[in-house]
Amino acid sequence: MGLLSDPNRRRALISLLVRLNTPISVVCYFAGVAWFMGLAFEPFTLRTYMSENAMGSTMVEERFPAGERALASGKEFSAHKKKVGGMPVDWLVKTMQDRGLEVFTQRFSRTLPFPDENKERYMVKGTNVYGILRAPRAPRTEALVLSAPCSPGDQNNQAVGLLLGLAQYFRSQIFWAKDIIFLVNEHDLIGMQAWLEGYHHTNTTGMDWSPLQGRGGSIQAALTLELSTDVITSMDLVLEGLNGQLPNLDLANLFYAFCQKIGILCTIQGKLQRNDWDSVSGYSHSIQTLMMMVMKQASGRPWGDHGLFLRYHIEAATVKGVNSFRQYKTDATTIGRLLEGMYRKLNNLLERLHQSYFFYLLPSLSHFVSIGYYMPAFGLLTVILLLRVSFRIFHLEVSSPGVLSVLTPLVISHLTGAALYALPTRFQEIAVEHFPVSETEAVVLTAIAVYTAGLALPHNTHRLLTGEGTEQGWRVLKLVAVLYLAVLLGCTALINFSLGFILALTLVPAAVLVTPHRPKVLTAFTLVILSPACTLLFSVFFFQELQEMPVTFQEGWLLYLSVISQGILDHFLYGSLVFPLIALLVYPCWLLFWNILFWK
Amino acid sequence: MAAHRRRCSVVLLSIFSLSLINVAHSQETTAPAGQYVSASVDPQTETAEKKAEQPAAEGRWEETEVGNMDLGDAATETPDSLSHENVFSPSVSEPKHDFREELVIRPLHSGDIYASFQFRTLWKTNFRENKVSHYRLFPKSLGQVISKFSVRELHISFTQGYWRTMQWGQPYQPAPPGTELWVWFQDSVTDVDGTWKKLTNVLSGIFCASLNFIDSTNTVQPSASFKPLGVGNATDHRFLRYATLPREIVCTENLTPWKKLLPCGSTAGLAVLLKSEKLFHSSFHSQAVHIRPICHDWECKATSWELRQTVNVVFDRHISAQGKREWSLFKMFSRTLTEACPLASSSKIYVDITDSPQGEQLELSPPTSLLSQAVALGDRRTFSVYDLKQQSTFGMTHSLNLLIRWKSNEGDMLRPLLHAERYVAGYGLHMGEIHTLMYNNHPYRSFPVLLLESVPWYLRLYIHTLTVTSKGKDNKPSYIHYQPSKDRVRPHLLEMLIQLPPISVTEVTVQFERALLKWTEYTPDPNHGFYVGSSVISSLVPSIVAMDTNMTQERPLFSSFFPNKEESTYFTRVYTEPLLVNLPTPDFSMPYNVICLTCTVVAVGYGSLYNLLTRSFQVEEPSPGLAKRIANVIRKMRGVPPL
């Protein structure tokens, strides 16, 4: 305790920190990275276990018999889908009614801010159909959701078939304590967004939807089913939702437990479990799985229709049937039994899923890394920033430079950020008029143009206002910028660890390195390499590498452009926060460092 | 009152009904703004219509009876009814006790089946004046409750499940999910709250239910929604208490004490069918006890106490009947009937065959010759009647296993004229919005409804955000009674009289803030959420009979120009679903971590700060030499300043 109050010892500590600042920083950086890499090493992780008593000890028997019939209705669905050329609303309504459900429809329409070239849609109009299985003797206070998207083409017909089959089978059971909502949503995420907004009567994204006629109370959990083949080899679990939110770990545990029980191969990130953790290849397998999860989470976009439920505090996951070339095959009846088992256990829930972790990373389905284990990796990176702050504070002379010399770059870089956020969507029409590009390209290219223009703008402007920049000025500015970065990264990591960590990996060295006295060209080049846009570019290549689908630079560049447009769309359609975060906060913060580099 | 009754009897003469199913349930609702028309039919008219119908009966039978019915059958019915008439005749020395039982079976359009039991015990006595000690048919446990707590009226219902108005139509006895209790006390009671507290505890014991959880935080005094159903015109709502427990689960343990109140118990009569393993293998189960004073005779000089015990149950086609549209008593209750309760003066089964009076859609076996018509829930319904008091009903096998089979799946249900739903909008744990939707499906008439919302204090209603909109326009309620909540003392009470335009949805929204409870106030399962009881919508709904434009075909012209008062509206109560709301909940598994963290923060952070603040920093002076110190001591003794 006397450490801080004793001036002598305090002085000694400070001098130590100041003297060893750089080595400590370097050590911290590598320790952070090493810690992160260690997270995938199996002895350092915990085995998953079911925390929720209501789901753990109770026995359920899975008896779903009608897989073949489900596939048949899937075929029927696909025939009607082809005939109508979209969602066969009337057929679905009638089929669900025949199965004894209360059926309702919801119409919605949405004009995208600019055309989505990946999915080729601009003015979206659609209808969601959902049937509610009313639980006997339950007062409509709780519900579970099973959804299957009605995708274009031949996708997901089996999922809808299985959904209808399950509905029929579930309907004849007496043990349901929660209403079960069977939802077939059109236009995947947009339909799901419309349905969820309708269900909760909120409107966060400016979509038009007709109000829902039937509800089942507060939704406790939801599963989305994606199934495009009659026979599957493994089931894949997708957890990453909007803004990097994850469902309660118990939902993943439940899936894993039933896959083990029924004997279905289960994967996460499309990667099977391996037992040889002590071999190099085993470790690299699990670090790849972990990094895939980190990349997906950092992107902040929903990786399945389930992703939008998480905003409403509904635990949700997507279950995907995969047909790869393995020997081991599973039929629709078995998948039906898997879902039946999961729904029966969810039905047994007394409380919302809350016992297990909400913040975790999964190197495999059987092992997890909790927030307590992965946060130190991030902590070690941010410590560097704090060290630099302390270094700056003790080096600062008493005379303070004018507030304006700090405020001006701050304001200008934030204005640039605001322009980056607002201009691309605002000026797409003008851009399309003047350049031979499509709307989507216009948006992306405008974004890149604003971003690049930002590099030229701010580092000269402070002189216009306050004259020559002083030595003191850039020191204060750097202090402010480093503090700003520390707070920004800290907050980001609390909400979305992966995003925070990836940003910290690149921005922390940038923050530490930059001074006006270093060789300009080299530092500028380094700074650009470490800028958020380049981080995104590297992430795109890295992600492709992780998916074992390497791309050439040309393809990668196109992918990069589409990722930018998707990111902007995610923000406007579903309220993803990554684009505004980067544009309004991270990019201006990086501009401050750019500003320091060119301080005169 | 007398004129009113006379008019009733005239109506009943003309409509020919053996029994009123639910007209007695229509109730006087004294609307504050005076819009409501009193449409009460006193229960004793039900007995009166019996004798009144007789002269008309024989002439009418041939018109409405099914094919195989001949006059002889009607004749056999007549003496039986006449004997009833003798029993109920007010002029003859009537018995002090009377017990009737009946079961109404309504086949629903969905293929489900609705069975409604009613057991009525009448007792001519006065609990207030003389001490009653001898009980016959009336259960002693309830009689003592009435006299001890000066109860004027008591209505309690236990319901498991939610009545699906859109699929099933209106129920005969509406009840909200969970438990509902409302009691009118005599105006002689001085400490109503104390008596209410004691009463709920006693009832809790009688019915094996958690009624002892009723306290001031969930009790309200509705000013207009709940009026006495029995005789007497006391409307001072200070003597009314209303409470619901939406979370209460109803099971066998509640059914057993309920059955013990019956004169025959569950050993004979219709109550034999009440087997719990079947009753709870259903989509909806509701049991209730209603006690009220009613007029004993025409002049209403004496009152008698009426105890009505009801069970309403809906069996699901998909779950209980393997999806087939075919029901039998055995399939529903796993029992058949062999006898009526010997103590009962009447024991009947009614089957609603309105949709196929000629048997074109529904097939009943054994077929019955008796038909009956009644206006129930604003609609004129036709019933097949099985009289269990007659041996011939049981046939050769001495057991009655009533079989109902649909011949076709066709036929659409008339949309219920009034239904409602409610939900919580918004997300997050800070704010929310309660939406109550009320649908008026009447093609051309608007009607007023009384909406009662009782919201627990931990949802802090922002009453300034209250909006009522119909068809996109503001709909100003003509009467609002709002009692704000007090934290941990009483709930919010909001009563409104709203006019519902024809074919419209009226939406009532009000925002609320979720309160942060003290940590001991959370339930053992806080993450389940907290319940908000159903809103109650009481209304006089224009009846379907009056809506029928073809009524001139059936009735003489002179009687059909002005809509008849009794038939033009009927009283109904609609309950919305209860709400389950999540409140901000601390992580209760974390106290250890919290303690560790706080201790560390206090020790490190506060400790060093405190240290810095309280310590005074001084420049240390080198200590003087020994000689100087001795010199100073000497100087001090001399009284001169030290060196």
TrEMBL record, chain A:
The protein's annotated pathway: Glycolipid biosynthesis; glycosylphosphatidylinositol-anchor biosynthesis
Localization per Swiss-Prot or TrEMBL: Endoplasmic reticulum membrane
Subunit structure: Heteropentamer. Part of the GPI-anchor transamidase complex, consisting of PIGK, PIGT, PIGS, PIGU and GAA1. Interacts with PIGK.
Cross-referenced Pfam families: Gaa1
InterPro entries xref list: Gaa1
Topology versus the membrane: Multi-pass membrane protein
Classification of source organism: Eukaryota, Metazoa, Chordata, Craniata, Vertebrata
Superkingdom, taxonomy of origin: Eukaryota
Name of the encoding gene: gpaa1
UniProt name for this protein: GPI-anchor transamidase component GPAA1
From TrEMBL, chain B:
Feature: compositional bias, Basic and acidic residues: 47-63
Tree of life domain: Eukaryota
Signal peptide start and end residues: 1-26
Gene name for this UniProt entry: pigt
InterPro entries: PIG-T (IPR007245)
Cell wall biogenesis/degradation among keywords: no
Region called Disordered, residue ranges: 35-94
Record carries keyword Signal: yes
One Gene Ontology cellular component: GPI-anchor transamidase complex
Keywords, ordered alphabetically: Signal
GO biological process, one term: attachment of GPI anchor to protein
Full protein name: Phosphatidylinositol glycan anchor biosynthesis class T
Ranges of biased composition (kind: Polar residues): 35-46, 78-92
